[in-house]
Amino acid sequence: MEFGKLAAGFAAVSLVAAPVAAQAAPAVERIAASSTSSEKLEGENGILIAVLAAAAVIAGIIIIADDDDPTSP
Questions:
Q1: Secondary element (H or E) of residue 7
Q2: Which end of the chain, N or C, is less packed with Cβ atoms under 10 Å?
Q3: ∠ CA(59), CA(64), CA(70), 5° rounding?
């Protein structure tokens, strides 16, 4: 039982001390990364994806609508 109280006390002290330790840590200087103009993150594949999505929707509609088989013999 003593070990449980000791563990609980240690956990409580560590929870109280963590923000203080984080605040006392020296500040790290952040340096912005330079971006190059070769990165193309948008715009080139949008039309291709839209055309493929439209073709998939049209193909799905044709497959669903082409159900001419009778359900009873």
A1: helix 2-24
A2: C
A3: 145
Tokens of residue 56, six digits: 């998939």
How many angstroms separate the Cα of 57 from the Cα of each of 4, 36, 68? Answer: 62, 38, 20
Write down the domain spans for the chain.
Answer: 1-25
What size, in residues, is the chain? 73
Tokens of 45: 């594949």
Structure tokens at 25: 């840590």
Residue 35 vs residues 29, 30, 45, 72: alpha-carbon distances, Å: 19, 16, 21, 66
pLDDT per position as a tens digit, 7-44: 888 888 887 877 766 666 666 666 777 766 555 555 56
